[in-house]
Design goal:
The complex is a heterodimer. By secondary structure, chain A is an alpha+beta fold. Chain A contains 14 helices and 8 strands. Chain A starts with a strand and ends with a helix. In chain B, strands 1-2-5-4-3 form a 5-stranded mixed β-sheet. The chains are: A alpha+beta, B alpha+beta.
């Protein structure tokens, strides 16, 4: 049969973001495939060199649209490392609450996104409704729903509003109650299991070859390789949580790990709310000048565990008011580009969207 | 996990005995950087990969126009002994060439393509490094070099757009007293209409 060329995305329910996968198919078996990025390139790395350190806070959340907080955290941590300062104790705990709420939000969105390629839209609507509650909490804390610009070098922008603990607890309780329902709708649902079980395999050798991190790696290797555990930042060393793993990485076990992480994140947020001390949340960095403060010379790589893996900023300062170079290590870069080119051929056409979905390929962090 | 400071000490000892280091910098207990000569980089990467740093996290470049150099950086990670290693080396800026490392770390393939596109560093050994990846039909110097000016490029590339003057507010004829009154009454009549 003649080979046919098909495009998956950018307009496709199974594609998240503005990237396209070019597929050469024979019947419904993929023979050749590659990702075409570049539809969302907005010159972030160049833009960051042209803004002052604090101005960049309004730019960097845009690097990853659905998960903006990790960008702020990586950038803030890197700047603090270069400056050699320690932020107030309370701000560490607030940062952790924000990061874990963001993790819940992206896991819900990604799990709901599974409804796209598998055709179960109920799941998507339920997940997005719950995500909306998280956005409401974010709006109360930061004033913004999606791009929060809340974690800044030197701490967080302002303290938590009064009474927010009640709202967060109420949301966590409701999500915990619905957890089993989510499992029944998604990965326990026979019609979806037929699609995701034993498909899109990721063997351990491939993990190391590509450099996949995060859930993709942990579900194949079976070890708790999570940056929050192995090199704890903020106060992750003072909370108790487990890192879900598996040794058989098909689409189902990756989604299973994702769902188990939801339970862990809920537990972390509860511990943070209980352990959080009182005190200041931000130290001023601009000595005299609010915007044009300088950062000492240095090279630093500042990694954060995102929902999709190791997400890092490589930051270079030459002692000026602007960063000299900021490089972004997108968590889904390896599986999005090399993974699609090398390991998608041989699978079925309808599994291509599952690769993009369960590996968490996020096009804006490839085009940054 | 194991004692992290000993990991850094281990790395420093390993690198010092095998290579002539230009510079060593311990950033914190989870990160260390080594600056090497260009010829030593491949051997260093092989040594570190054999020592357990099997994941390549990031590859990119930094432009230093004053020194006329481009600095390449490789970031490696080992999850058993959690230390991020930066390996840095400087190459000539006028003709930057660095042999590819895809035989050591296959994951570097796309990072090298991106680096060629944005800094113009050539990676012989990587079969696809010259193919376009993100920038479509780019016809200027590599954009992340410091002497590339986005404003000048956009002025050269795109025609200047002419904006119309705001008719209602800025036009002198419309800013006369009777015209203002007319607009006011019209607005009020519309308000009345909405009530019904």
């Amino acid at each position: 049969m003649k080979q046919m060329k098909l495009f998956l995305g950018p307009q496709h329910p199974g594609m998240h973001g503005n990237a396209s996968v070019h597929l050469y198919v024979d019947g419904d078996i993929i023979k050749k495939s590659f990702l075409l990025p570049g539809m969302l390139h907005r010159g972030f790395e160049k833009g960051m060199e042209r803004h002052t350190w604090i101005n960049n806070i309004s730019l960097i959340p845009r690097v990853c649209v659905v998960e903006p907080d990790i960008n702020e955290m990586a950038f803030a941590m890197g700047t603090e490392k270069l400056l050699g300062i320690e932020v107030p104790e309370r701000s560490h705990w607030i940062r952790m609450i924000i990061l874990e709420l963001a993790r819940l939000s992206i896991h819900l969105m990604a799990y709901g996104g599974l409804g796209g390629p598998t055709g179960n839209y109920t799941l998507m609507y339920h997940a997005h409704a719950d995500r909306n509650s998280i956005l409401d909490i974010f709006e109360q804390i930061t004033g913004h729903r999606v791009y929060h610009q809340y974690i800044v070098p030197g701490g967080v922008r302002k303290d938590l509003p009064k009474g927010i603990e009640k709202d967060i607890h109420a949301f966590l309780d409701s999500l915990e109650k619905r957890y089993e329902e989510y499992r029944d709708l998604g990965i326990e649902n026979p019609s979806i299991v037929a699609r995701i079980k034993d498909t899109i395999m990721l063997p351990e050798a491939v993990v190391w070859e590509l450099g996949v991190t995060g859930i993709g790696m942990r579900s194949a290797v079976g070890k708790p390789y999570d940056l929050r555990k192995v090199m704890p930042y903020a106060r992750y060393d003072q909370v108790e949580f487990e890192v879900p793993t598996s040794i058989y990485s098909d689409a189902r076990s990756r989604i299973d790990c994702k769902l188990k992480e939801i339970i862990q994140s809920i537990s972390i947020i509860r511990q943070c709310l209980a352990k959080m001390p009182e005190g200041p949340v931000r130290i001023p960095l601009g000595r005299g000048q609010s915007m044009r403060w300088t950062v000492p010379k240095g090279y630093v790589y500042s990694p954060v565990e995102s929902s999709r893996g190791e997400f890092g900023y490589y930051m270079v300062s030459n002692g000026g008011t602007n960063p000299w170079r900021v490089g972004v290590r997108g968590a889904s870069y390896p599986q999005g580009l090399l993974g699609v080119e090398k390991y998608l051929p041989g699978t079925r056409l309808d599994d291509a969207a599952l690769w993009i979905d369960t590996m968490g390929v996020c096009s804006p962090e490839i085009d940054r | 996990m194991m004692n992290s400071m000993s990991n850094v000490e281990f790395l420093k000892a390993l690198m010092t005995q095998s290579f002539k280091l230009v510079e060593t910098d311990v950033i914190d207990q989870y990160q260390v950087s080594f600056v090497l000569k260009q010829d030593d980089v491949h051997q260093a990467l092989i040594t570190l990969k054999n020592a357990g740093w099997i994941q390549m996290s990031y590859l990119s470049a930094i432009d230093w126009p004053d020194e006329n150099k481009i600095e390449l950086v490789y970031i490696l990670m080992n999850w058993e002994r959690p230390v991020h290693i930066q390996i840095r080396t400087k190459v000539d800026r006028n003709d930057p060439v660095m042999p590819s490392i895809i035989n050591i770390y296959p994951g570097a393939k796309y990072y090298e393509r991106e680096c060629y596109e944005f800094f113009g560093v050539k990676f012989p050994g990587n079969p696809d490094y010259e193919k376009q990846l993100i920038l479509e039909v780019w016809d200027d110097m590599p954009p992340l070099r410091k002497d590339f000016d986005p404003k000048a490029y956009s002025d050269k590339k795109f025609t200047k757009r002419e904006y119309k003057e705001d008719y209602l507010v800025l036009s002198e004829q419309n800013n006369k007293k009777e015209k203002r009154e007319e607009r006011k009454t019209r607005a009020e009549s519309l308000k009345g209409g909405q009530k019904i």
